[in-house]
UniProtKB/TrEMBL annotation:
Gene3D superfamilies the UniProt entry points to: HUPs (3.40.50.620)
Entry keywords, A to Z: ATP-binding, FAD, Flavoprotein, FMN, Kinase, Nucleotide-binding, Nucleotidyltransferase, Transferase
Protein name per its UniProtKB record: FAD synthase
InterPro entries: FAD_synthase (IPR015864), Rossmann-like_a/b/a_fold (IPR014729)
Matching SUPFAM superfamilies: Nucleotidylyl transferase
Amino acid sequence: MIYLLAVVVVWIFRKGFFMIVVKKNMNQIKNLIKSGDSVVTIGFFDGFHKYHNDILQTTQELAQSKNMTSIVISFSHKISSFLKKQNDALIASEAKQNYLETNFKLDYYIELEVDEQLIETSPKDFLKWLKEDLKTIALVEGEDFCFGAQGVGTIKDLELEFDPQNVIIKKRVKSHSSSKIRSYIAKGKVHKANKMLGIPFSLYVKKTNSQDQQFAINFPNSKVKDGYYNVFLNNEVPGKIFIANNQVSVLDLNKMNDLAVEKIFLKKYLGIKNKTKQK
């Protein structure tokens, strides 16, 4: 039975497998799991690098081995970004959802709406929500995981609530981090960033003038090095762009039958003077 009370639910079908997507305020998600128990992982999962994929794969396999429901909980914004009133995520929400659906067989993807109420939720109340409304009995998390108001909840709190044997801890892979990916992008090393990302780094753009080839970058807000890039327009059509001051010029767009560009996958940085080799 599809639960439709007070939550927005989307069913995604792939080869006979359904993943339920729930995007709503935490307090509107009540008694979501009707029967059985669940294995949960919680995180922002920005970019789906190797460390993220290990956590997600373990969550899926543990749930399947115990015949439980697998649940991934993420957030509409990072808490720090919400407080700064900006969004510095590497990938868009829709891309995150599509990646999970394509690469895993998970039962639920919950994207909690970040608001003042969520930020002020105590670790005790968050754990209560996990147990009562999601029927959580096991979790898979990174070693630096924290939760609740001001991030005071820790792995030790999870172990006290669920028992240490039901809390699987993954050690952080220092060579893979969202911060390192952002650093690569800022330095123009998008080829290295893309090798680490589960989803190719893309810009979401909007045309600034119907008469020219200029676009403004709507997302992400991450620093992108100015210069020329080989790209795929709308992730399909090969092209070349020039970025300067958060503005994108699509070269030879008039030869592409006025392609309606909305998304640009950055493949390779060519340099500020359109060099063809990248160090």
